[in-house]
Amino acid sequence: MAKKKIKVASPKTGCAACMPNTMEIPLGPQHPALKEPEHFLLEVEGEIIVNVTPRIGYVHRGIEKLAETKTYSQNLTLVERVCGICSHVHSISLVNAVEGILSKHDFEVPERAQYIRTIILELERVHSHILWLGIAAHEIGFDTLFMLSWRDRELSMDLLEEITGNRVNYGINEIGGIRRNMTKEQLDKTIKYMHLTIERLDRYVEICLKEDTIRLRTQGVGILLPSKAKELCTCGPTARASGLAVDIRYDDPYSAYKGALRDILKVVTYDTNDVFSRVVVRLIETIEACKYIIWLVENMPDGPVFAKPPRKIPEAKILSRTEAPRGELIHYLWSNNTNKPYRLKITTPTLANILSVSEMLKGDYIADSTISLASIDPCFSCEDRMITIINKDRRKSKVWTWNFDQLRKYSREWNAKNKRWKK
Amino acid sequence: MTRPAVIIWEALRNAFSRKKATIDYPFEPGVKPAVGLRGAHYLDITLCTGCRACERACPPIAIVMVPSEITKTGKRPVINLGECIFCGLCEDACRYDALVLTDYIELSAFKQDEMIIYSTEDPSLVKKEEATEESPKEEES
Fold first, then answer.
1. Among residues A220, A217, A241, A221, which one has the least CA distance to residue A229?
2. Residue A9's Cα: distance from chain center in Å?
3. Secondary structure (3-state) at A324
4. What are the backbone angles phi and psi of residue A128, rounded to the nearest 5°?
5. Do the beta carbons of residue A323 and residue A334 sit within 8 Å?
6. Where are the beta strands (DSSP E) in B90-131?
7. What residues contact residue A148 under an 8 Å CB cut-off, 6+ apart?
8. Alpha carbon distance A390, A1 (integer Å)
9. Which of B2, B7, B18, B63 would you mutate first to test chain A, the one with the most A CBs within 10 A?
10. CA nearest to A166, candidates B37, B42, B107
């Protein structure tokens, strides 16, 4: 990312009035406020932040390249490990892409499998949002709420462990369905636990709306206006907290959201545009997610949960979008009639939201920067997955908009010119 | 005038009338789901035919085939639990039910070799295999 230099009047006489009045404070890569390595350069004027420059790319792991060497069902376990918290949504995204290709060749996924997938998706959203509530409470120094909310998160974690067999990376998806069926007892237990969770969450909504400790630290902090949110392409709860009604589950439905569930689906928005509104949006969304789970369990169809797919996936290029707990997740898959993908491109929601942080922090105090940062629910290790092409002449930056044939032509010319890269 | 904190009631209820939420784990048994937990492998070598299905299914290449005199094809799997991700794909791939995931999850060892499952059936055989197979394998990794 190009670093922008701000011109500061150069001091000649050395008097106080001529001194540069902004200071640069680095936040990260190693910083107690950040759980993962990421660098933010804060330019401050006294206590107030004037400008922020994020720098990403500290934890690039090469997952996309590794995905090209493994088969599709092996890749499901790989893409789950992109993110620890929203792991199932990654495998759903890849599975949707592959099944989207296969659906053109008369392949259908059983409906019960779609329902169970969606139950796990929503359970994951519940535990992710409650985890975020705990972290946000911890950032503002309210550790009682942190402990209480994480205890209640255990209900959904236990359910996930019982249904799928693993506590974090579930490994339940398979191309063509799921690997385990849900029994009657598990369905009953899900409903019982979800009612308990709703009861607890109602209490937390009450606490967050009334408690001074939260209101004083969050109201009026980290403001992101709707026009700016639209301009910076934010997604997920961050966009919804700025009053934009964007939700992939509603706009571009997948899995079980395609069916009757779409009628009861609510896009939760709130209009105060600050951190407080993000707290409220996430909490209400969690309650809604619990209601969707109850609805899905009550309307669960019978039947098989797995249909055997063909071993080779026909040649196609497909883009699948899903709504992760943090926003819009994109998987772009390019298959080439083998059992391994030719190319897999993953774009995670934090990459879309990270630019809005610099907008949120402007005009705030330094002490509020941590909660503003945490309010987008950042997951930096997920996002670092990109190639930056730097021109040889770095002073002239260039924007390239090419189609595929032009790009191929360019690559041939480039290969001819740079002989050392030839095999 | 300040509002009395809402959370005080919650904290008091928590301190006096609620049960303990934590477990004194190493001294008490931990909580496990009754069925379906994915833990360490159990390899029944008498049922294994050495068909390599588990090796092909394994995503992190934790299963490697070594020569064996017991199985039909003359090969049998060696599972490195240090690299295993406990996805259970090998269990699904095995057609003879020779490879099963148990609910044993307390996996920790002082040496890397202790995390490698050779065979649960015949310990005398393990030592022979170790002497022959260990040395080239270490060089590769």
1. A241
2. 41
3. strand
4. -70, -40
5. no
6. 99-101, 116-117
7. A204, B10, B14
8. 10
9. B7
10. B37
Cα atoms in the Cβ-side hemisphere of radius 13 Å centred on A197:
35
Cis check: omega of the bond before A29, within 30 degrees of 0: yes
Confidence bin at B133 (pLDDT 50/70/90): very low
pTM, to two decimals: 0.83
3-state secondary structure of A199: helix
**Mind giving me the DSSP string for A231-259?**
HTT--THHHHHTT----HHHHS--GGGGT
Angle at CA of residue A380, ends A253 and A228, nearest 5°: 65
Residues from chain B contacting residue A77 (CB–CB below 8 Å)? 59, 85, 87, 89
Q: Which residues contact A215 (CB under 8 A, 6 or more apart)?
A: A209, A276
Tell me how many degrees the CA angle B37-B38-B39 measures, rounded to the nearest 5.
Answer: 110
* End-to-end alpha carbon distance in chain B: 68
Q: For A196, phi and psi rounded to 5 degrees?
A: -60, -45
Contact A165 B36 (CB under 8 A): yes
The CATH fold of domain B35-140: Alpha-Beta Plaits (3.30.70)
Cα distance between residue A279 and residue A214, in whole Å: 10
Quick: pLDDT tens for A293-319: 999 999 999 999 999 999 899 999 999
User: CA-based angle B3:A130:A111, to the nearest 5?
Assistant: 140
A185-200 tens-digit pLDDT: 999 999 999 999 999 9
User: In Å, what is the CA distance from A256 to each residue of A97, A171, A261, A291, A301?
Assistant: 15, 19, 7, 14, 11
> Which residues sit opposite B75 in a β-bridge?
B67
Q: At what angle do helices A87-103 and A111-139 cross, to 10 degrees?
A: 150
ipTM over 0.90 threshold? no
B86/A144 Cβ within 8 A: no
Q: Could you give all domains of chain A from N- to C-terminal order, each with its CATH number? A: 63-383 (1.10.645.10)
Give Cβ neighbours of residue A291 (< 8 Å, ≥ 6 apart): A198, A264
* Alpha carbon distance A92, A254 (integer Å): 9
Helix axes B7-16, A184-210, angle to 10 degrees: 130
Structure tokens at A99: 């099944």
Query: Is residue B64 within a helix (H) or strand (E), and if so which, with residue range?
Result: strand B63-67
What are the distances in angstroms from CA B11 to CA A129, A178, B7, B20, B46?
22, 42, 6, 13, 58
Indicate which of A76, A77, A151, A203 best probes the interface with B, i.e. most B CBs within 10 Å of its own CB. Answer: A77
Residue linked to tokens 């059992």 = A339
